[in-house]
Amino acid sequence: MEEFRLGAQVFIEPGQDKKRVAKWFKILAQNGMTTSRIRLFEDHIREGTQWDFEIYDYAFDQAAINNIRLLVTFFPSDDSVGGFKFPRDESHLAEIADYIKNVVEHFKDHPALDCWVLQNEPGVEERKREGLALSKYNSWLAKQDTRGSGWEFMSWELFFRDYTTWYLNWIAEQVRLVDTENLTHVNNHQLFTNLSQYDFYNWKPFLSTLGVSIHASWHLRDFKRDQYALAISAHCDLIRQASLPNPFWVTELQGGNNIFSGFEPMSVNKSDLALWVWTGIISGAERIIFWTLNPRGKGHETGEWNMVTYQDEPTERLLITKEIANVISDNKLLFKNTKPLQPIVTLLYSTKSMITLEKVMSNGFDDNYKGRKQGAHILSVLAYYEVLLELGIPCQIEDIDNFDWSACPEEHTVILANVVALSNTNIKAIYTFVEKGNKVIMTGMSGFFDENMQNVYQQSSPFKDLTGADLRGFDFVGNSSEINFGNLTLPVHMLIGELKNYSGQVISQVNEKVTGVKNNYGKGAVIWIPSLIGLGSWQNDNSALAEFLSDELRSNIIKLPLWFDRHMPRTIIKTLESEDSYISMIINNNEDAIEIPIRQQSSKNHEILFGKAAFKNNEIIIGPGDTIIIKWS
What is the per-residue pLDDT across 223-251, written as a single tens digit (0 to 9) for each? Predict the structure, then answer.
């Protein structure tokens, strides 16, 4: 991790008192913040053909006076809250280019400028077939070969992914025509919904950093409040992997209360912010920026989300972030030389699977069954992610189509959680990965379709040699059922798959039907359980899934520098490592104090950098809802 920066959005609007603007940037500096973000509205600076940057000139100057580095978000003329995501037509595209040219020329050499945010929160709820998008689609489609593949079912969604990449790259090109020095960045949003629209790998050539917006009231509807740390951690881990080798930022993090805006009204307290910020830091974020220091003065979000009072006094939320900033400052070299622990498990997600689930549903998504919802695949991934964090096992979340199978350390484990669409390329990589001595755990409907939405089991048996078995079919079992797994009973949601076993070791049966096998292949092994045990555990008790994973990963767990000795529900440990020390974050999301059994590869001295805890033998006692940061050396 390079130098960590904490900051907050300063919202600039016409009519603001200059003394208040100056005070806001001073407040940032007084509270340990060294970066800020502003949204540069075209409607504030342009009248016809005339440009007047006065209100932003003053904001830039105040930022420079207070040593605040600015992220500047382009915001071409628009009357929506988050801004339009695509141009209407070629004429509109020319207007956007003119706006970017004028803004970049004016500010590119200002000492406060650090980064251009190309677009606020790319990703749309509805991929509309209209305007420039439709014109570009027709040109794009003419270059595709879809004969007899079934690929045409997903052509618009696949195009839209490329269209998003094209437009963001086009914006970056407009910047680079004028400014080749300052950073470029975008912040994604509604990550687990919009993920299939993002082609992060092909964004790398035109981005310096990748970011994400994480607002509990907007983005965490699939999570309970005691799972917010889990959700933020997952956002960070996914974006970190997508951004490598570039840094990643939490570009927007909810900093205040909301009443009318957002999907859920919410009060945010200092414990919330401590938990959220530390989760970002220990996940490797190099910047975290709150939305927002001062509230908007008019329109949507007026008087909400702020970290200062209406009298510009610090709230408890701002003061706790100052405390965190001081911890980082006091241990600057320690944090600068750290990185997340080497993962022993990779959870693979598939944008093709997300699109497939979106297209295969007959009548829209079904709220009665999570397995029939748009998030059925990504929620399955998150179910395993939650259990791994509650075991203290470092893991990563990666796009299957960009995952480097050959770069994994020895005896690595990959989990395919309801990855419904697997290409021939994916399947060949899985075979090679296992053959070389690694392990794959494949569950749910993984591999039911190929990349073109064709059901493969009617034509071939792609996993027969790998697993020693073949899929016979699925039974619909409603919201909740179960399968036996040795001495364990695993919760199942919606589907139980039956296997025809040839040579695998039977590890699960229901009424004499084979529901799980384990098979050795080459130097490695594969486990196949074609039932939705991830979603079943997500909705019910995940302790059985935790015991299953703990047993399967035991040989690698005991090689970790530190881990939980048993499954700790609603508890998270994440660790950064440096040359001779570790920094761990432990979060207790339970309603009572708990004793956490920590095991270490070798005994180390400990120092609490943040929070309060008591140590008793090999256990740490942490209060309800508390977050602690520990240095081990």
Answer: 999 999 999 999 999 999 999 999 999 99
